Amino acid sequence: MPTSKKDVQLSLLTFAAVLGISAAVASAVDQSSISLWGHSALVVCAALALLIQIAAWIPASIKKTEVYFDLTGGLTYLILVAVSLWAGSRTTAPSAREWVLSGLVSIWAIRLASFLFLRIHRAGKDQRFDDLKTSPIRFLVPWSLQGLWVFLTLVVVLVVNLQSTEAPPLGLLDAIGIFLWVCGFAIEVIADRQKTAFNRQAQNRNRWIDTGLWSLSRHPNYFGEILLWTGIALAGCSVFTGTEWWALISPLFVAILLIKISGIPLLDRKAFAKWGHDPDYLAYRSTTRALLPLP
């Protein structure tokens, strides 16, 4: 598909919006952040998230491949966590909260990135990128959005790690947050494994999964994702002061993205187009919650 003038304008507008939103959020939560290389460390991390995507987009657009897209996203999380811990340690030793939250995010990023990479490796491609990767300028859109996604979801941990003031000790909110993270992570992992095992069985080809957690929710993995980021935010908010509370945009962004934009609506439309004529699927859809895994 040739690149049209409208494609160029839309891609550049998206890139500009990513820059604007990243800068606005970084500036909003930059109340107690340390400086790094003469700039706010939060702004540096926001810029780094986007620069990593651009560095990966260049060879990916040349080769017209999306194979390393999810792997790059996971690597970006790990790099930002490492940079923020290193930068913060230049003024004060990392607190227990910093180590815990950084560790939880790293575990999640490694697990999800490797899971998505192996999935696309088995499938050979990701159909979402079929039209985008034929044009470098269109292909820039998902990469720039991924940079924004990484920064916005990670902003709570970045605020915690880059505090210039001494953090309070771990308390009840931290314990509740860590518990929610463990529950969300377990739900996401179990749901992904159940779906992978289901799809590997020949008799399930061209069928929707309605067993295990998927009998209680049409998207239990998304529920787990929202729950674990809510846990991270709850555990981190003990250090927030003033405008740093804007960092709570993290779980809100994840929830809106998955519930209203690119998660449930996209997959539900795709599933309805595929099985909307099947009475059994319509019955499953009408009797199974979209998100919350309850009978």
Spatial strand arrangement across the major sheet:
1-2
Largest sheet: 2 strands, antiparallel
What do the pLDDT scores average to?
Answer: 91
Distance between the termini: 45 Å
Task: Give the class from helix and strand content and strand pairing.
Answer: mainly alpha
Instruction: Give helix and strand order, one letter per element, not per position.
Output: HEEHHHHHHHHH
Q: Taking Cα atoms only, what radius of gyration do you get, to the nearest Å? A: 20 Å
Shape: globular
Strand percentage, roughly?
A: under 5%
Q: Ranges with pLDDT <50 over ≥5 residues? A: none
Say how many strands there are: 2
Q: What is the domain total for the residues?
A: 2
How many distinct helices? 10
Helix content: 55-70%
Structural features, described:
The protein is mostly helical. The chain has 2 domains: 7-96 and 126-167, no CATH class; 168-295, no CATH class. Helix content is 68%, strand content 1%. The chain has 10 helices and 2 strands, in the order αββααααααααα. It has a two-stranded antiparallel ribbon with strand order 1-2. Helix 2 packs antiparallel against helix 3 (69-89). The model has no long low-confidence stretch (mean pLDDT 91).
Show the helix and strand layout.
Blueprint: H1 5-28, E1 35-36, E2 39-40, H2 41-63, H3 69-89, H4 96-123, H5 136-161, H6 172-200, H7 220-236, H8 249-261, H9 264-275, H10 279-287
Helix pairs in contact: 1-2, 1-5, 2-3, 2-5, 3-4, 3-5, 4-5, 4-6, 5-7, 5-8, 6-7, 7-8
